[in-house]
Structures
1.
Amino acid sequence: MRVLAMLDGTLADPEAAHIRVDDLGLLRGDGVFETVLVVDGKPRELGPHLDRLERSARMLELPAPDRAAWEACVQVVLDAWRGPAEMALKLVHTRGPEFGDGTPTGFAIGMPIGEKVLRNRESGVRALTLDRGFDPEIVDRAPWLLLGAKTLSYAVNMAAGRWAEAHDADEVIFMAADGSVLEGPTSNVVIAEGRTLRTTPPSSGILRGTTQGALFRAAEQAGWVTKVEPLTLPELRAADGLFLASSVRKITRVHTLDGEALPDASALHRELNALYESEYA
């Protein structure tokens, strides 16, 4: 079950061809996207996702996304969805055809969430740390690297996932050249230390997390302390709990890191998921 809507609000056949073969999003990854979790017909953090889409577009000097058109396009998909209660809704905004008139390509597609993701939410995951190949100090010095933009250029992230799978792991946590923790290919890293939650700052060249932000809001309301600051690998290993946060994963526990079993954080995982879900009760 998939539902596809073009930015003009037209429903389209997701099995048919709609994107020109010379679209720069396809040819060069010259575009941006967001993935929104929808539960019982309600998109979670749609505003922050659209904010991030706009920020990523600015970083690529793409035409600014028409927010009202995107909101209407999202609603078209929601109205047409007849699948499971949870859906992954992908918003895609590209530079459009090469040598075109500058009109961007935009569409939204709703898809079921994969069985592996659903299983891992419950069972937890094995993660590998991999070198991402840059130092956070380069973020401000080299804006053309687009660190912190959610672009369609995801080949490195997908390659990292395949590397993990080939080495008996489910997920990856990227490390910077200076030894600091960055993010997962499609997730933010969160650790718990007592009643404190910590995550890596966007200034290190990572995406500002929408799900991580929702968790931190709920945790603060429940009396937790939250911190956005650099993390190190020893801190991941020593934490009371290590988690990956993303729209479709929600809050997923890491139970094994680089082949080493971490302390059992099952109860803590349930507590954090309850906090996260309280944002939408």
2.
Amino acid sequence: MSSSDRVRVRGLSIYRPIIYGNTAVALTQKERDSLTSPDHTHRWTVAVRSAASPPNSDQVGGADDLSYFIKRVTFKLHDTYPSPTRNIDKPPFEVTETGWGEFEIIIRITFIQEAAEKTMTLLHHLKLHPWTVSGEPEIPPLEVALKAGPVHSWQYDEIVFNDPFQNFLNLLTAHPPTPLPKAKRKPIPFHLANPGSFEESKGGTPEFHAGMISEEAERLDDARKKIIAETERLRNELIQKEAELEKSKKLLADGA
């Protein structure tokens, strides 16, 4: 390695898109009975993957091998699991288990030595049950859960490397990420498209796509407009109340 490789490229940032989260499926009664812990209701997989999904696959993300810049992913599970700290040193960076409850999973990403970057820590709430309109999990009967299909909970993120060393920059540029599709190509799982109504699942697998950026921008803009409108309504209400208060004070003063 030459000395120039250990020089930081100042003023440059480069990023790699990832997703992290989990998928969960309900176990049949036969599968539950065969487990050493028959109270377990779901089989789930928590993972860190590239954002783009493989073509012609039901997997969410994972089109690219991330081991060219990730050395290890550590998943800290609930303490009730045997060996709750799971170190995964090669792809796929994921852990599959069975269980009955939802809990917070701590995810630590350790980068290769060439990156000279600190460990990155993420938090993910393990999701076993479908989302509802209220944002609370709803536990459907077993036959409904089996019919509704897998439950997905994934978060998109971008790992940004600022002022990278030249040798690490060379490594990153030699492995460009698979571009996200420009638009949605796969049907959304029914229970995600229709929160709180999952009795007739249409199947489908979530997929991250470039159009989600504009969709999120539209949602944020709508939320901003609603906040502005609500702020204006409250402001007018306050002005009206203050006017009524001044009128009451004046009447009291005149009466005195």
3.
Amino acid sequence: MIKHLLSAADLDAQHATLVLDTAAELANVSSREVKKLPTLRGRTVVNLFYEDSTRTRISFEAAAKRLSADVINFSAKGSSVSKGESLKDTALTLQAMGADAVVVRHPASGAPHRLASWVDGSVVNAGDGTHEHPTQALLDAYTMRSRLGRVAGLHVAIVGDVLHSRVARSNVLLLTTLGAKVTVIGPPTLIPVDVGPALSPDLRVSYDLDAVLPDVDVVMMLRVQRERMNDSFFPSTREYARRYGLDAARMRRLPEHAIVMHPGPMVRGMEITPEVADSARSTIVEQVANGVSVRMAVLYLLLGGK
């Protein structure tokens, strides 16, 4: 297994499948009365979060604790970081504490790569800027496999604010590695110029959601990240929802077996209506539960689990 997980591109099909298979085995622990394994006893996992994140931080914390690791939660707010300490100085502090793994979320793209050059332990990228979020892509692939039985050969539509989405980038890289076909859909202003066959030969771009829906197995809706926008990328919220929102009428255009995904947090009524989000086709709650199993698998494999 690799030493760090910085990008979905770090995983070839064999390693990615190993993570998914390991997660499937570890998922059985969640159904037991005592949800703990002694696998990482004596190891220290640091959650280093420079951006707010409820789901991802708690998911990694739960994963580490279920493997019996010691967990240190480090929030940038109220720490020396808010007083101006650099990432490198923070890294040296973690190194001195003997961190075996550092799970990092940072607003700057590439920060986990820098961190990996400064610490001896494993570094897991829990989201860096608009760059990547590899464990989210892994849990999405795991969810597809558990619902549809496979990833290879699926047609996945990723819809919405692709420009600002690290989830979209990681999913494109991982899903095409695992043999899926991916179409990204959104307004032209929210599709990055480097997304297309150049990123992966199995990737397509479309600006017409209705044309693609009848042909997909999975539709993944993305949140519009207003906090990362300085300009107006579309005329209005209402217009965006009309063209790119998933409502009950659009859901009826999907094949019968198709599932609906969302990495969260959702803006109900904008990219997805409540009736779709709460429907039997939606895997949104499952994705959160699967996240713990997948992150357990990542920590287990990076920290020497066999």
